[in-house]
Design a protein that fits this description.
Oligomer: heterodimer
Strand order of the largest sheet of chain A: 6-7-8-3-9-10
Largest sheet of chain B: 6 strands, mixed
CATH topology of the largest domain in chain B: ABC transporter transmembrane region fold
Radius of gyration of chain A: 35 Å
Strand content of chain A: 5-15%
Number of domains of chain A: 3
Number of strands of chain B: 10
CATH architecture of the largest domain in chain A: 3-Layer(aba) Sandwich
Strand content of chain B: 5-15%
Distance between the termini of chain B: 12 Å
Number of helices of chain B: 19
Largest interface: A-B, 150 and 149 residues
Order of helices and strands of chain B: HHHHHHHHHHEEEHEEHEHHHEHEHEEHH
Helix content of chain B: 55-70%
Shape of chain A: elongated
Shape of chain B: elongated
CATH superfamily of the largest domain in chain A: P-loop containing nucleotide triphosphate hydrolases
Chain lengths: ~600, ~600
């Protein structure tokens, strides 16, 4: 359809920025340079008929018919056949070549962008919504695919056509060229205006389509509430309004294209008329031949399409550069957590020492952790407790180096090595975070375990499952560890997903486990099994758990109570629970009370 | 945890097996728009005349002026006049065709939406939101593309016929030579359309796969980074990126095979015109003007011939889309009001609720095996039971989302099937486990079941529900909620939902596990809001937590779709091991 890609005003780049972005894209596309050159050659071949056809007709008329020379007519016909075949061949190749070049460029852009996004540290993902990042990788790149598939093709072929046709016209008769130049500006102005208006209208349509779809989605998701609240009639009325607004937006685009197509049609006929009138006079005065007038009229008729295409291209380029700029913004973001040159491997085991650490989340100003000191002995089990926002989860994230402490504060080290000086590979091997909910990727159970150790064999996978005592459960599945878990592990229960997540950690066999205890419900059957598996996973490892349950807290060697971003109490359950007016003592009391109500 | 009705494959309308496309819905709407469509056809036919006139006038201008050495200005003016006419008609027929097709699309969309919104819950359980949405977007788009082509095609056919006649009259032999390659254009274009459609779908499907791999990698970035699995995910993305590249190249090959051929064929016609036409001019059987006119006519036919193939292809896709749409439109609502509904006698203190030997099955899966339960007006009952015990099903039957397969559900002594469902739902309100907020203000969300409520009533209901957080929202009661609006926490949503039913002031209130999504600290506040809501009504609480259960007068223990025990919380704790087991499980799950 006409109108192509829409570009919002705020996304448009100025000329200098557009040039800069395009130059940078061209550098990225260096690998495709030779393919591109070949493509241009094929495009030139494909345009052969359009320009040469009218010339051959002229030759046929002037040298053949008017001169009564059958031979010359024959030459024209044979030439025409040759030209048509060349164009056919060139056209066939151009589609394939432009695809190879364009999609090759997009493929490398996809991989480069994705690799770079993945290198970013968590702060980056806090700042950028997942949906936005995903659309950089999908919608934005797809919007460029239109440019590389059609845009380049049209740009080159329209450019070749227009320039060659104008040269040919001028050589044949400059007077007729002048006539042509009377009509073309009208088409150009109309096309540019059309592109501008239809872009605006298209953005409105896109917005209305979005509103329409989201209302449909809301109504389908909320059909229970709508029917239960006897709101069906009212929601139907609202949808009718919403639907009419969409229709209205569509009608605006229809009106805009209506006058444009009328004008273009008229200009085509006008060009013929002008060519004939001027041509008649030129023939009369003996300046040009009849064949030249015919060739000029035929040539003029074929100039309209390239002009329309070029004007359409303007928006395509605008939307592509807007997308490219957003991608370059990401590519220019250096990851906050990266391996320093000369990083060392962490030792196999050791104490985990938090020393005077302060922390502020990126892009925020309030420090959420102050002067944290904690010495965790190898093999010790630590429970972090405190209210929401007390800093316990933050501390856990720092211990796993998902973030780095504020630079002017202390450090976190494992076995005497500052985590910031460690190689990322050894860090991920020694310290593993098990998230609250088992997050699975599309693929098999084994694929999901191997996430951390792609080289692990099936035997390794089974061993990991056995080590936490859940091998039977997965052996009982129809295809064992090769069972497809589907999107987000939807084929497994929540508990089973959690088991896979634990087994994944077991496969890494880390020295330190950082756990965020689940707050959500599991089905009671698996709940107990998850508990047992977790207990086995924790054996003989240093464990830091963000705890929500009294039972977990009790089993810890030491409890760390956080409050307002500070560590306020450290000690065993027995030590702390007896403290008069201690924070932990109060917390434990509240917990007990809740459990008592629960028990009846 | 609630038992969910099993999802079956969407049913294919009423009869299984092969069905022919039902065009009746489209024809209905087309009939409503017949004037506009007829006008588009008429303009198109007149436009055909203009299009045919231009090459003929050119021929005359060449033969009478250029060839004889006299001025062509007069003829040129005629051509300009023809250009004005075709320009106006091009605009007019296009405008009408698109206006009508967009209107037809909008009307069909409303039809589907309104129909679906009134369908029974059994239908919605089976249908996937995404599927229904694509009925109302992608499928209608196919229909629209076809409808727009209908009047355009009529004039294209007229144009082809007109040009053929003109050419045959001028020179039958040359007409044959020039016209022979042209029908091939339609054939090639049709084959192209058949071949490119799956290729484009394949590209889209690969793009969707890449998108889902990227999506899970980014949503699961904590896992990816936690395990250093960046390379594994990059490899997975590379596989998808390669797939996109491969299928996209396939699509390019399809284009390469057909599109140049479509350019080649008219070229062959033009060569025939030049060669044979040239010879005939030399023989004096034809004029130069006629030769040029032939040239124009051949070019003129290319687009109409291609568009006919588009119409055929769009017609096929529209037929498939209409078939899918008909599957939805032909589902008859299962829950309808009787012709003479009984009247509920609402009293101040709630309504009596009775279930008499109620059986119920979702498809083949039986969930209730003969439930007998009477809840007196103004009293409260807690339904307790493990997963799939049938608790939520009881609630849904009371709202008449479903009818029991056997037995009867009575409200105020009247069988629900004898009542208007709207009447039932005005008297029975439910706080659903997951609170759905609409894209509207807080006030409108609270007043959802009573749109005419005064602002004072809304504020009062919010206060009674303990929704004091509303004052802290950016725009208080005018804050817009929903997916595209301000998002609330689980506990806040629950309180909005409670305020919603308080304002609706039903005789019977069903609370589905209203504390489940809530932080333990907030549980207490929700409970007191629930207690307020229960006063002066018949209340059914689907409860998991002891604190919530304790609020009810009686506890009904459901087990495997049967009532296992009835009594007070303390009684059941003492006497029922199964009750203790259910509570222990739920507590353990916390």
């Amino acid at each position: 359809m006409w109108g192509g890609a829409g570009v919002a005003a705020e996304d448009r780049l100025d000329a200098a920025e557009t040039r800069h972005v395009l130059r940078r894209a061209a550098r990225l596309a260096r690998d495709q340079r030779s393919t591109m050159l070949a493509t241009v050659g094929f495009i030139a071949m494909a345009t052969a008929t359009t320009v040469t056809g009218p010339l051959l007709v002229r030759h046929g008329i002037d040298a053949g018919i008017r001169a009564n020379d059958r031979g010359a007519l024959g030459v024209a016909v044979v030439g025409y056949v040759a030209v048509v075949l060349i164009a056919w061949f060139g056209a066939r190749r151009q589609y394939v070549m432009v695809n190879i070049a364009g999609e090759g460029f997009l493929r490398s852009l996809r991989l480069r962008l994705f690799a770079h996004i993945q290198r970013q540290s968590l702060g980056f993902f806090d700042r950028h919504q997942a949906g936005v990042l995903i659309s950089r990788m999908t919608a934005d790149i797809e919007s460029m695919s239109e440019l590389v598939q059609w845009g380049l093709l049209q740009f080159v072929s329209a450019g070749i056509l227009l320039s060659v046709a104008v040269v040919v016209l001028t050589v044949m008769s400059w007077q007729l060229t002048l006539v042509a130049l009377c009509v073309l500006p009208v088409v150009i102005v109309a096309s540019v205006r059309f592109q501008r208006d239809s872009n605006r209208a298209y953005l409105r349509v896109r917005d209305r389509v979005g509103r329409n779809l989201s209302m449909i989605q809301e109504h389908l998701a909320g059909v229970r509430v709508i029917q239960a609240s006897v709101r069906t009639a009212e929601q139907r009325r609202r949808f009718a309004d919403n639907n009419d607004e969409l229709l209205d937006a569509h009608m605006t685009t229809v009106r805009i294209s209506t006058w444009y197509f009328g004008v273009v049609e008229f200009c085509g006929v006008l060009a013929t008329a002008l060519g004939l009138a001027a041509g008649g006079w030129l023939v009369q005065t003996g300046r040009v031949s009849v064949g030249t007038v015919v060739a000029a009229i035929l040539l003029l008729a074929s100039l309209f399409e390239p002009v329309q295409q070029l004007s359409q291209l303007y928006n395509t380029v605008q939307s592509a550069t807007a997308s490219l700029r957003k991608m370059f913004d990401i590519l220019d973001t250096e990851p906050e957590i990266d391996e320093i040159p000369g990083a060392v491997d962490l030792p196999r085991s050791g104490d985990l020492v938090v020393d005077g650490v302060g922390f502020t989340y990126p892009q925020t100003t309030a420090r959420v952790l102050h002067d944290a000191d904690l010495h965790i002995v190898d093999g010790e089990r630590i429970a972090l407790v405190g209210a929401t926002g007390a800093g316990k989860s933050t501390l856990a994230k720092l211990v796993a180096r998902l973030y780095d402490p504020d630079p002017d504060t202390g450090s976190i080290s494992f076995g005497g090595v500052d985590l910031r000086r460690a190689t990322l590979a050894s860090l991920r091997e020694r310290i593993v975070v098990v998230p609250q909910e088992g997050f699975l990727f599309n693929g098999t159970v084994a694929d999901n375990l191997r996430l951390a150790r792609p080289s692990a064999t099936d035997d390794d996978v089974w061993a990991a499952l056995r080590s936490i005592g859940v091998a039977e459960r997965f052996a009982a599945m129809p295809e064992g560890i090769h069972t497809e878990v589907r999107e987000r592990g939807s084929r497994l229960s929540a508990g089973e997903r959690q088991l896979v997540s634990l087994a994944r950690a077991a496969l890494v066999d880390p020295a330190v486990l950082v756990l965020d205890e689940a707050t959500s419900n599991l089905d009671p059957g698996t709940e107990a099994e998850v508990e047992r598996a977790l207990e086995r996973l924790m054996e003989a490892r240093t464990v830091v758990v963000v705890a929500h349950r009294l039972s977990t807290v009790r089993r810890a060697d030491r409890i760390v109570v956080c409050e307002g971003g500070r560590i306020v109490e450290v000690g065993s359950h027995d030590d702390l629970v007896g403290r008069i007016d201690g924070r932990y003592a109060r917390l434990a009391q509240a917990w007990e009370a809740n459990t008592n109500t629960s028990a009846g | 945890m609630t038992e969910r009705p099993p999802r079956a494959a969407p049913s294919r309308g009423t009869v299984r097996g092969v069905r022919s496309t039902d065009w009746s819905h489209l024809l209905d709407v087309l009939r409503e728009r017949r004037r506009g469509i007829a006008a588009a056809v008429v303009l198109g036919v007149v436009w055909t005349g203009g299009k045919i006139a231009v090459p003929s006038l050119t021929r005359v201008a060449i033969d009478r002026s250029l060839e004889t050495g006299s001025t062509a200005v007069g003829w040129a003016l005629w051509i300009v006049a023809a250009g004005v006419v075709t320009g106006l008609l091009t605009a007019g027929r296009r405008y009408l065709a698109f206006r009508e097709s967009r209107t037809v699309e909008a009307r069909l969309r409303r039809r589907i939406h309104d129909h679906v919104l009134g369908l029974h819950m059994g239908f919605h359980d089976r249908s996937q939101t995404g599927q229904l949405m694509s009925r109302m977007s992608a499928d209608l788009n196919q229909v629209q593309m076809f409808v727009v082509m209908v009047p355009l095609t009529v004039s294209h056919v007229a144009l082809i016929a007109g040009v053929t006649v003109v050419l045959l009259v001028t020179d039958p032999l040359l007409a044959l030579v020039a016209l022979i390659p042209l029908p091939l254009i339609t054939m090639v274009a049709k084959r192209f359309s058949d071949a490119i459609h799956p290729a484009v779908l394949a590209v889209q499907s690969e793009q969707a796969q890449l998108s889902s791999v990227v999506e899970e990698s980014i949503s699961g970035v904590r896992v990816v980074k936690g395990f250093g699995a960046e390379q594994v995910r990059l490899d997975a993305v590379a596989v998808e990126a390669d797939d996109i590249q491969r299928v996209s190249l396939d699509a390019a090959r399809v284009r390469a095979r057909f599109l140049p051929l479509m350019e080649l064929l008219p070229g062959l016609g033009l060569i025939g015109v030049l060669g044979i036409g040239g010879l005939r001019v030399l023989d004096g059987a034809m004029s130069v003007g006629e030769l040029v006119a032939y040239n124009f006519y051949v070019t003129l036919l290319v687009w109409p011939l291609r568009s006919i193939s588009m119409t055929l292809a769009f017609g096929q896709r529209a037929a498939a889309a209409l078939e899918r749409i008909d599957e939805v439109l032909s589902v008859a609502p299962a829950i309808v009001a009787p012709s003479e509904p009984a009247q509920l006698q609402a009293s101040g203190g709630g309504l009596k609720v009775e279930l008499a030997d109620v059986h119920f099955a979702y498809g083949d899966a039986t969930v209730l095996h003969g439930i007998d339960l009477t809840i007196d007006a103004g009293t409260s009952v807690a339904l307790v039971g493990g997963t799939a015990a049938g608790k939520s099903t009881v609630a849904r039957l009371l709202l008449r989302f479903y009818d029991p397969t056997a037995g009867s559900v009575r409200l105020g002594g009247i069988d629900l099937r004898d009542l208007d469902p709207d009447d039932v739902r005005r008297n029975v309100q439910m706080v659903f486990e997951d609170t759905l907020l609409f894209h509207d203000t807080v006030a409108a969300n609270i007043a959802f079941a009573r749109p005419d409520a005064s602002p004072a009533d809304i504020t009062a209901a919010a206060a009674a529900a303990g929704a004091d957080f509303i004052d802290d929202l950016p725009e208080g009661f005018d804050t817009v909620l929903g997916e595209r609006g301000y998002s609330l926490s689980g506990g806040q949503r629950q309180r909005i939902a409670i305020a919603r039913v308080l304002l609706a002031d039903p005789a019977v209130l069903i609370l589905d596990d209203a504390t489940s999504a809530v932080d333990p600290a907030k549980e207490h506040e929700i409970r007191s809001a629930m207690a307020t809501a229960m006063v002066g009504r018949t209340t059914i609480v689907i409860a998991h937590r002891p604190g919530t259960i304790a609020m009810a007068d009686r506890v009904v223990l459901l087990d495997g779709g049967c009532i296992a025990a009835v009594g007070t919380h303390d009684e059941l704790l003492r006497t029922e091991p199964r009750y203790r087991a259910v509570l222990a499980d739920d507590d353990g799950a916390r």
